Amino acid sequence: MTVTTQSLVVGQQATGTDITVPVIRFQGQGRGPRTYIQANVHGAEVQGNGVIHHLVQLFKTHPPFGDVVLVPMANPLGINQKSGEFTLGRFDPVSGENWNRQYHFDPALVQQLARDMADASEQELAQALRQGIARQIEDKLASPFGVKSGQHLALRLQKMALEADIVLDLHTGPISARHLYVPEYARERAHLFNIPLNILIPSDFAGAMDEASFSPWWQLSEALAKQGRAFPVMVDAFTLELGSQEYLNVEDAYRDALGIVRYLQHRGALPKFDVPLPEMTQYACYLDDYRAVYSPCGGQIEYLATLGQPLAPGEPLARVWHFDALMTGDRESRELTLPEAVIPVLHFASASVRQGTELFKVLSHHFLL
Amino acid sequence: MTVTTQSLVVGQQATGTDITVPVIRFQGQGRGPRTYIQANVHGAEVQGNGVIHHLVQLFKTHPPFGDVVLVPMANPLGINQKSGEFTLGRFDPVSGENWNRQYHFDPALVQQLARDMADASEQELAQALRQGIARQIEDKLASPFGVKSGQHLALRLQKMALEADIVLDLHTGPISARHLYVPEYARERAHLFNIPLNILIPSDFAGAMDEASFSPWWQLSEALAKQGRAFPVMVDAFTLELGSQEYLNVEDAYRDALGIVRYLQHRGALPKFDVPLPEMTQYACYLDDYRAVYSPCGGQIEYLATLGQPLAPGEPLARVWHFDALMTGDRESRELTLPEAVIPVLHFASASVRQGTELFKVLSHHFLL
Amino acid sequence: MTVTTQSLVVGQQATGTDITVPVIRFQGQGRGPRTYIQANVHGAEVQGNGVIHHLVQLFKTHPPFGDVVLVPMANPLGINQKSGEFTLGRFDPVSGENWNRQYHFDPALVQQLARDMADASEQELAQALRQGIARQIEDKLASPFGVKSGQHLALRLQKMALEADIVLDLHTGPISARHLYVPEYARERAHLFNIPLNILIPSDFAGAMDEASFSPWWQLSEALAKQGRAFPVMVDAFTLELGSQEYLNVEDAYRDALGIVRYLQHRGALPKFDVPLPEMTQYACYLDDYRAVYSPCGGQIEYLATLGQPLAPGEPLARVWHFDALMTGDRESRELTLPEAVIPVLHFASASVRQGTELFKVLSHHFLL
Amino acid sequence: MTVTTQSLVVGQQATGTDITVPVIRFQGQGRGPRTYIQANVHGAEVQGNGVIHHLVQLFKTHPPFGDVVLVPMANPLGINQKSGEFTLGRFDPVSGENWNRQYHFDPALVQQLARDMADASEQELAQALRQGIARQIEDKLASPFGVKSGQHLALRLQKMALEADIVLDLHTGPISARHLYVPEYARERAHLFNIPLNILIPSDFAGAMDEASFSPWWQLSEALAKQGRAFPVMVDAFTLELGSQEYLNVEDAYRDALGIVRYLQHRGALPKFDVPLPEMTQYACYLDDYRAVYSPCGGQIEYLATLGQPLAPGEPLARVWHFDALMTGDRESRELTLPEAVIPVLHFASASVRQGTELFKVLSHHFLL
């Protein structure tokens, strides 16, 4: 098995220093799907690097069938950007743009292929789509007007992901239970990852890596379906949210790695070996039912609800404290509740919040996966 | 003439302090269009407050025909948020969301009105549209899931703007020449503002106040046009970019105020009085031709091009310095040029830039307004 | 018992909004020492507010003998200042100055009193010292050159603290075990707070509230001792570090409140009532032995040592991961150890660190309190 | 003439990337004092890099007599740290510590040398002092407890500066006229730099590079003077403030370079050649009279006074606007004045300020240099 490592240039600092990401390539045995896995695109979300560490160890003893590309610490700008003690890694500190909303997808390309190559073979269509996207990315990077910092990074990561049949993007929430973004067409395979909470998402593109990876294929499948042709969605892409940000636990990461292994084995990307994973109840909801809960007022917060556990209507998510009201006769605290049953997935990382701060995200109208 | 002032609550701090904006209402004489003007929604963009100061003085001696609502310092969260010496006022420091991308517009409402009320009078349609939007805003604010901080502010500003026939949003660029966003339908009136550079924008909605104000009316006009009915765009909305951020010059603001006065007089919102404004050449381009220029590399920047002046192809916009290359034999500096003629409108505020930093915005394929 | 509340103005925002702190005053029975307690001067350190909540409840049923002034959420600027999801509450975001290093102390005043009033009564000296400091604070606030933001706050808090005989400043660490800063002269009373880790500090002044409160009295005592006169240190001041920042647990805060109650009872500030507190081992070290441990390299961190537990020489504090080194042959991780026995007190809040980041603070050369 | 360049490692990012500074060494002709010049230690203060660019050109045609070490872009962490559009380069974003307050000086070493080597030759004393400081720096860097990020940088820069007889640290103010920090013993030489405003500073050490460079020599001179021995201050060190931050003008930098050349020629470090510099009036004051002016209230600011020009008592420095007061009857603006004559040196970079923001720094009780 050939394994190569590379330090890929994805930008340049004001001081002239190159900004680089580590890339590890396992050359497969020429069969089975190709896999691309990246971690830490949001700078504070480090746990995925520990997962990649374990995958590397596992792949050394169980060589993958298809090529695998691994990119830990995929966003050096986000990782190295501090503001106070914390990593300001979710958005570009200059522009405010989310690092995971800057990938490329042009639906017109899909429509053009569906129109011009409706009778081509699956392989021809797949090749044309990959080449078309690759050419658009190259054109963007070559523009005399330049491209923005976030895209220097995103487009170079995407070029690697574009060659894969399976794309996994390892994130975390702020303070969070493990959860998974599942494109609806891949719902049957979601359970393999061994993640308790699942959000089923449609074929829309809003700029994220998973969407950039599956949307072209999914929308091509949809466009050809309208013409009466069954065309499979040829790429699987998932975003895994592996717990809380600013937290690294390499032992825990082993279980996360095993879930990925089980999925890769199922897909034929890895040889079978024993993957001991516990049984768990897996819940899901649709994206429209994955709701944010915003603070109804300013205050200081005690987070009460247990993440990942179903919460009955009216049970408290949190208690909001108004310490400015002590002895004034005004209300000193209030419970935050919802009128419907939900499962809290994650909560805000700070105890002090303005009115309108996103305090929780919750599954609503949830069901068993 | 009745003038009232109010301190409108638009949010609450973690400490319990209300977040408020000042609102000044001139009650008009019951004729002429109603006007809404706000300034400083981006926290560092202060010059519009000086303009409102002058408008107040002018309105006292020249009472408006229609009601006027003025909101200076419209975003206290943005204005009061510092990071280092500068105001971090462009986006919410928690979420990274642009403060001027959080207004509300639901195109389905327009489609429903065009379908259900195609034969109603202009006045009935206008009333139904205003009421429909107002109801949606109230529903959002009343959600048991809450609404995000930026929308607590934006929706309350929008409720006031929704009652107006003319909406002006006063901004600035970073380091910038004066420029104006003009909805294409209002192109003939753009010159009245006395602003040299103009960007013609379509009816799309991306979350900004001007779009939130004109898109419903414009899209209703378009929808009814498809049914063969001519329906005027009943609301004018413009974003004025009055020079550079972090810079207040109240004397200069008088000229900006006079341009607005000339426009309001033309619209019948103000009585005629002499408005001495100089002649100027006014350029314009379409939004797709209003281009960002991103730095091709990291480095330190000398900004060379004069803002607002046409620049020939190949003439330098800036010089990028690589002081890490002194005596190394590598290139110590390079000129940044474009292969086509442009007019530089604004440039970045800092001298140190990463690769991909938005260095300039330029008019391209420009023409006389 | 008379209890009054006040909203004390301590500054003004750019938008003109007053910056205020809540002040709760319990009028005592005219005997026993006067007490001043504040919390949350560092914006992310919220737990002390929960303690003040419980003290208020306890004082209502057990009226204090002496006056008590309570100031929760004592730094609105720090509490409301976010950067990303977290509260940037440790230092002024404009100047970088620590909010708890801006109190006032002029040693020359102490030297002057020791010289000019060496034969005055204790009461006369105490009054002269209080009046002298109060006058200096007033003079600062009245300077035509103004005073900096942090001092507008600090000096107004200090004016209240100056009237007290006991000053408690409630803080937290980043991720932290409970610990206490104890002026050496008060060592015997430290155990009453029921805090396991204690740092014994000298009479130096570096700008903090505790120092500003005890240094004048302590240095006066030292100066008079040189002249052969025994003069007691008449003010006790402590900084309590009540666990981790960005974390509010009001139930836990009850135990913290009981420790304070036990101390206040011992000092005669509160009537005796049963205070059920568990036995614990209490460790201490001198300030020079309270050491920071800086990261020897950049990397991502697994924090391994249990806070508050003695750690043998060579036992790992943390593991530093270099995920850029996967499969390169370079070292993928290293343990961080120390050559001597320590007790880890707190650790850094983020998992990604530059070389030289303060990873831990530890007691060294520690002993039983 | 031998010229070498080096990329000196001064730290490591979380991602494992080395943090480096460029170092350019001109080997002199073995006579004349040795010179160390650095620029851009505060990340936003870039103009000094342009000066070093010109010095490099001048030294190529006029080889220095003594060794010269040049360090442009001396603080990569500060230069590359953005927050919003601006460089957050004045203090460490994690700790809040000023990058230019982290150099090393231990006065005990000076006292020891004055005691133990009072009769040694000048050369022996100089060597012992340099070796002593170098050893202390090495010991710090080798501590098993590590050293903080800012010191990883500062101590490595200081090791280079320690070998020089002349140390120049090139800074800028926020919005600023050119000014110079002059140690009092070097007052006669200050005029050579051709800088209009000069601040005379004492031998105290507060952590800055200039102080770290001259304090040991100056305090040694003072200590030996007390013993009756005349010992010259053997090192000259100055901080040059070359205009405004975030602004690079390489043409202007030529004049700044010529002032340095004139000083170096006078000191015998460079051969004589014609240095055409204009006459100017040069003012000075003592450090205690270099006063900050803090905003008396919150508001938005028009900066009125011309930097570098004497201002009579009562003449306005700025106008503070309260746009929240429009039409309320409250004061809409106020002038900021001082009761005494001053020369404004610099002002704050933003137009929106809290009460207590440092608006201006001014020379007071000034005189001709």
UniProtKB/TrEMBL annotation, chains A, B, C, D:
InterPro entries: AstE_AspA_cat, N-alpha-Ac-DABA_deacetylase. Keywords: Hydrolase, Metal-binding, Zinc. SUPFAM superfamilies: Zn-dependent exopeptidases (SSF53187). It comes from the Bacteria. Its cofactor is Zn(2+). GO terms for molecular function: hydrolase activity, acting on ester bonds; metal ion binding. Residues 32-266 form the Succinylglutamate desuccinylase/Aspartoacylase catalytic domain. PANTHER family: BLL3975 PROTEIN. This is Succinylglutamate desuccinylase/aspartoacylase family protein.
